[in-house]
């Protein structure tokens, strides 16, 4: 049975309403497509290549350059009037409770959208160049290319050719309908027309971006199709919010691994006492080790048609993976009208505890109970989660030990607090 639901996806680009094909000879818009980008120049941020070890929090000496560059360029696009609204003027509060869910009131965001028919029962769908994709974005919305430096140092070039040795560039661009301060899109190999599908290379690129930011308050997120991705062109989202996410404060329980079952140093846990069941991957000997393991899990999920969301946290050291089923339940009519009326589609940011509300009444009445009630609809049942976890472990070559860990081994692990890269005016005050 084909499952579809009427969707109103967020407009992420000012060119999204015009999704038609563009002539090969040039579109006249100076876009990110084949007609314009190969003969264009864009700034380049080159990140450190192949770090041998993940930076330890106590030893890290983070640079402010990347995060200041990104936020500075984002603010420059704000002064140019490229955003559809001023997200910094949106009311935001931390909801009282054990986890501190974050609520934002953005009454105009759902009005700045166009209706579309979106299929929710297929996580993998072929790229369709006739529909909106990021090659149709104007270059004024792009901040810079994000490329491997090939060395142990990072550097920045104010202008460089957008294609080198026939390799498509990775591009960081603004989201013109931002959820929060500094909301950007990381688009791997923009000219290659990759569908929304994670592989090891793209996931490693996202980890490098988190590591370069070196700030616990800068996170990256990923939504698969069927888990509220709205554009079938490979991309990650990221933004800066100066409070811990509730999922980062939630208790976790280590999953014991059999002797020799893992050599990468990656530790695997499951969330405890959180409304959405999920897995947590952290540490590891290298970024490659962490990327290999988590991408293997993502590949199994998407190849087996299980929608999922990913949060990259703690400067790339911690990954939250959430298999989910909300869109399917919604299409089957199994979600209550009360929740549907909120118009909240629980993607990675909502699941992580940052909930954008469209109606003032919902914002003013927001509580930990109402957030929990919404997110509980996202979660797989315990039996299905355990089944999926077993398949993920098999795909990632992990062997769970038969030795059970005590429940009180669950740990409370708040996100590390680092120095703010922005002024006090951008802090969320409970």
From TrEMBL:
<keyword id="KW-0963">Cytoplasm</keyword>
<comment type="similarity">
    <text>Belongs to the GDPGP1 family.</text>
</comment>
<keyword id="KW-0547">Nucleotide-binding</keyword>
<keyword id="KW-0378">Hydrolase</keyword>
<keyword id="KW-0548">Nucleotidyltransferase</keyword>
<keyword id="KW-0344">Guanine-nucleotide releasing factor</keyword>
<dbReference type="GO" id="GO:0080048">
    <property type="term" value="F:GDP-D-glucose phosphorylase activity"/>
</dbReference>
<dbReference type="GO" id="GO:0016787">
    <property type="term" value="F:hydrolase activity"/>
</dbReference>
<dbReference type="InterPro" id="IPR058866">
    <property type="entry name" value="GDPGP1_N"/>
</dbReference>
<dbReference type="Pfam" id="PF26217">
    <property type="entry name" value="GDPGP1_N"/>
</dbReference>
<feature type="domain" description="GDPGP1-like C-terminal">
    <location>
        <begin position="246"/>
        <end position="397"/>
    </location>
</feature>
<dbReference type="GO" id="GO:0000166">
    <property type="term" value="F:nucleotide binding"/>
</dbReference>
<dbReference type="GO" id="GO:0005737">
    <property type="term" value="C:cytoplasm"/>
</dbReference>
<dbReference type="InterPro" id="IPR058865">
    <property type="entry name" value="GDPGP1_C"/>
</dbReference>
<dbReference type="Pfam" id="PF26216">
    <property type="entry name" value="GDPGP1_C"/>
</dbReference>
<keyword id="KW-0808">Transferase</keyword>
<feature type="domain" description="GDPGP1-like N-terminal">
    <location>
        <begin position="66"/>
        <end position="239"/>
    </location>
</feature>
<dbReference type="GO" id="GO:0005085">
    <property type="term" value="F:guanyl-nucleotide exchange factor activity"/>
</dbReference>
<protein>
    <recommendedName>
        <fullName>GDP-D-glucose phosphorylase 1</fullName>
        <ecNumber>2.7.7.78</ecNumber>
    </recommendedName>
</protein>
<comment type="function">
    <text>Specific and highly efficient GDP-D-glucose phosphorylase regulating the levels of GDP-D-glucose in cells.</text>
</comment>
<dbReference type="GO" id="GO:0006006">
    <property type="term" value="P:glucose metabolic process"/>
</dbReference>
<dbReference type="InterPro" id="IPR026506">
    <property type="entry name" value="GDPGP"/>
</dbReference>
């Amino acid at each position: 049975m084909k499952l579809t639901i009427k969707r109103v996806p967020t407009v992420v680009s000012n060119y999204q309403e015009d999704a038609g094909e563009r002539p090969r000879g040039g579109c006249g818009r100076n876009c990110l497509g084949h007609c314009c980008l190969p003969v264009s120049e864009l700034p380049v941020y080159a990140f450190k290549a192949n770090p041998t070890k993940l930076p330890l929090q106590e030893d890290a000496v983070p640079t402010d350059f990347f995060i200041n560059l990104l936020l500075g360029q984002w603010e420059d696009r704000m002064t140019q009037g490229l955003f559809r609204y001023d997200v910094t003027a949106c009311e935001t509060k931390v909801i009282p409770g054990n986890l501190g869910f974050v609520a934002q009131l953005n009454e105009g965001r759902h009005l700045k959208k166009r209706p579309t028919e979106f299929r929710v029962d297929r996580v993998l769908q072929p790229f369709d160049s006739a529909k909106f994709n990021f090659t149709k974005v104007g270059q004024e919305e792009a901040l810079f290319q994000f490329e491997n430096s090939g060395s142990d140092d990072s550097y920045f070039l104010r202008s460089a050719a957008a294609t080198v040795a026939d390799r498509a560039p990775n591009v960081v661009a603004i989201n013109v309908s931002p959820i929060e301060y500094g909301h950007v899109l990381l688009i791997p190999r923009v000219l290659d027309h990759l569908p929304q599908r994670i592989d090891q290379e793209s996931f490693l690129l996202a980890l490098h971006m988190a590591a370069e930011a070196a700030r616990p308050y800068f996170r990256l997120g990923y939504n698969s199709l069927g888990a509220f991705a709205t554009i079938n062109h490979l991309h990650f989202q990221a933004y800066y919010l100066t409070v811990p996410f509730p999922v980062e404060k939630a208790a976790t329980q280590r999953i014991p691994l059999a002797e020799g079952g893992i050599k990468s140093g990656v530790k695997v846990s499951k969330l405890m006492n959180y409304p959405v069941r999920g897995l947590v991957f952290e540490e590891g000997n290298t970024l490659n080790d962490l990327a290999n393991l988590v991408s293997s899990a993502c590949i199994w999920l998407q190849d087996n048609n299980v929608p999922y969301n990913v949060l990259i946290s703690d400067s790339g050291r911690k990954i939250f993976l959430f298999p989910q089923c909300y869109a399917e339940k919604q299409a089957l009519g199994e979600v209550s009208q009360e929740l549907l009326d909120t118009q909240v589609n629980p993607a990675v940011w909502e699941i992580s505890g940052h909930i954008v509300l469209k109606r003032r009444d919902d914002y003013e009445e927001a509580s930990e109970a109402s957030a929990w009630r919404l997110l509980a609809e996202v979660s797989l049942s315990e039996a299905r989660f355990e089944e999926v976890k077993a398949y993920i472990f098999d795909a990632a070559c992990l062997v769970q030990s038969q030795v059970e860990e005590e429940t009180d081994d669950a740990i409370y692990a708040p996100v590390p607090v680092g120095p703010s890269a922005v002024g006090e005016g951008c802090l969320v005050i409970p």
